[in-house]
Amino acid sequence: MNTLPSDNKREKAVLVGLCSQPETPRALVEEYLAELAFLADTAGADVIESYIQEKKIRDPAYCIGKGKVDELIPFVKEHEVDLVIFDDDLTPGQARNLERALECKVIDRTGLILQIFAIRAQSAQARMQVELAQLEYMLPRLSGAWTHLSKQKGGIGSKGPGETQIETDRRLVRNRISLLKKKLREVSLQHNTQTRGRQTVPRVALVGYTNAGKSTLMNILCPEAEAFAENRLFATLDTKTRRLELSINKLVLLSDTVGFIRKLPHHLVESFKSTLDEVLQADFLLHVIDISHPGFEDQMQVVRETLKELGVDHENFIEVFNKIDALEDQELLKSIRAKYPDAVFISAARGVNIPVLKEIIGKYVARDYKERKILTHVSNYKLIGYLYENTEVIEKRYLDEDVELTFRVHKNRIKHIDALVGASEPLQYDTTDS
């Protein structure tokens, strides 16, 4: 598979997009190419030119028309272009034909995103997930990779080593895919075992389009998180989870997740499902949106569709419009506030309205808190200690040798308290909801 270099050497790239009126208007293709240029920059390439082909039906041999290919050839040679990147997926045959004609590397948007993920992956799990996605992407593209080894003459011995090598390579790739899937299942089981104790604490996941500012928000809400944040796409691949204290004995576990993007490769969505378990298991989601981006509503739709593909159907969904300091048009900000009255408007970089966001998170969490009353002997230190450490004790009254405690507790802890109550045989256990 062709890849971009991850070292300091930067390649010169040309972008190509397809426009099909009226389904895909030119303005939308230009927006896609602007994002593709950002992706190329993230991967280590400098975009020197962009081409848009207006074509109703894709050419089966080149994707774009032969005339556009002939237009590209002299430009690629004159400017010593290293790489041509297509915004649309190429078939293996189209990629090979284009490379032969242009005499340079040719990749599509999927290949570029896979390369960025390969560069960004830090943990062993993320590296395995990226490798799995790359191999599944590579498998149908192995055909022809060894044609230089094949014998051209017919007759005896005409079945050259090239064909054998392709089959061998495919078998090795399939075996590696099976091994990676097995390892990722094991990692997922280990992760579930390690996080079983977290189930009593409410969980919140940050989701959003890539570069919306999720990691910056994570760092300001949980300063000890030290999440990597920069103005690059897919700065975060590995899920980080940290404690967010809201008030005395009232906390949530906040998780930062990988960002989404248009045309996110299906292989990546499948591979990263185990990483996105935090989203599936979260009690509610914070959808972080870059309000300064002109196409933020399209990005919101991409996030919703990707979550749907992952099987996430959440009613508890807080929309957080970030980067309000970067939006110069205050009238536009007013109209967006009117359109999304339940949303929170913040600047994570400058700390604007962060206390308001924490207060709203607290209100969402409070929905799942119940008020309870227990009467037990003053010597029942185990139960009393647990309540003071894990609940919000509202009132304490002494009645002879007993103590009556009124407290608020998250619904996820009630079963554990039931077990302690049963073991200690209290005189009274009131389960009336507040």
Automatic annotation (TrEMBL):
<keyword id="KW-0963">Cytoplasm</keyword>
<feature type="domain" description="Hflx-type G">
    <location>
        <begin position="202"/>
        <end position="369"/>
    </location>
</feature>
<keyword id="KW-0460">Magnesium</keyword>
<comment type="similarity">
    <text>Belongs to the TRAFAC class OBG-HflX-like GTPase superfamily. HflX GTPase family.</text>
</comment>
<comment type="subunit">
    <text>Monomer. Associates with the 50S ribosomal subunit.</text>
</comment>
<dbReference type="GO" id="GO:0046872">
    <property type="term" value="F:metal ion binding"/>
</dbReference>
<dbReference type="InterPro" id="IPR030394">
    <property type="entry name" value="G_HFLX_dom"/>
</dbReference>
<feature type="binding site">
    <location>
        <begin position="234"/>
        <end position="238"/>
    </location>
    <ligand>
        <name>GTP</name>
    </ligand>
</feature>
<dbReference type="Pfam" id="PF13167">
    <property type="entry name" value="GTP-bdg_N"/>
</dbReference>
<dbReference type="GO" id="GO:0005525">
    <property type="term" value="F:GTP binding"/>
</dbReference>
<dbReference type="Pfam" id="PF01926">
    <property type="entry name" value="MMR_HSR1"/>
</dbReference>
<dbReference type="GO" id="GO:0005737">
    <property type="term" value="C:cytoplasm"/>
</dbReference>
<dbReference type="GO" id="GO:0003924">
    <property type="term" value="F:GTPase activity"/>
</dbReference>
<dbReference type="InterPro" id="IPR025121">
    <property type="entry name" value="GTPase_HflX_N"/>
</dbReference>
<comment type="function">
    <text>GTPase that associates with the 50S ribosomal subunit and may have a role during protein synthesis or ribosome biogenesis.</text>
</comment>
<protein>
    <recommendedName>
        <fullName>GTPase HflX</fullName>
    </recommendedName>
</protein>
<dbReference type="InterPro" id="IPR032305">
    <property type="entry name" value="GTP-bd_M"/>
</dbReference>
<dbReference type="InterPro" id="IPR027417">
    <property type="entry name" value="P-loop_NTPase"/>
</dbReference>
<feature type="binding site">
    <location>
        <begin position="256"/>
        <end position="259"/>
    </location>
    <ligand>
        <name>GTP</name>
    </ligand>
</feature>
<dbReference type="InterPro" id="IPR042108">
    <property type="entry name" value="GTPase_HflX_N_sf"/>
</dbReference>
<dbReference type="GO" id="GO:0043022">
    <property type="term" value="F:ribosome binding"/>
</dbReference>
<keyword id="KW-0342">GTP-binding</keyword>
<feature type="binding site">
    <location>
        <position position="215"/>
    </location>
    <ligand>
        <name>Mg(2+)</name>
    </ligand>
</feature>
<keyword id="KW-0479">Metal-binding</keyword>
<keyword id="KW-0547">Nucleotide-binding</keyword>
<feature type="binding site">
    <location>
        <begin position="208"/>
        <end position="215"/>
    </location>
    <ligand>
        <name>GTP</name>
    </ligand>
</feature>
<feature type="binding site">
    <location>
        <begin position="322"/>
        <end position="325"/>
    </location>
    <ligand>
        <name>GTP</name>
    </ligand>
</feature>
<dbReference type="Pfam" id="PF16360">
    <property type="entry name" value="GTP-bdg_M"/>
</dbReference>
<feature type="binding site">
    <location>
        <position position="236"/>
    </location>
    <ligand>
        <name>Mg(2+)</name>
    </ligand>
</feature>
<dbReference type="InterPro" id="IPR006073">
    <property type="entry name" value="GTP-bd"/>
</dbReference>
<dbReference type="InterPro" id="IPR016496">
    <property type="entry name" value="GTPase_HflX"/>
</dbReference>
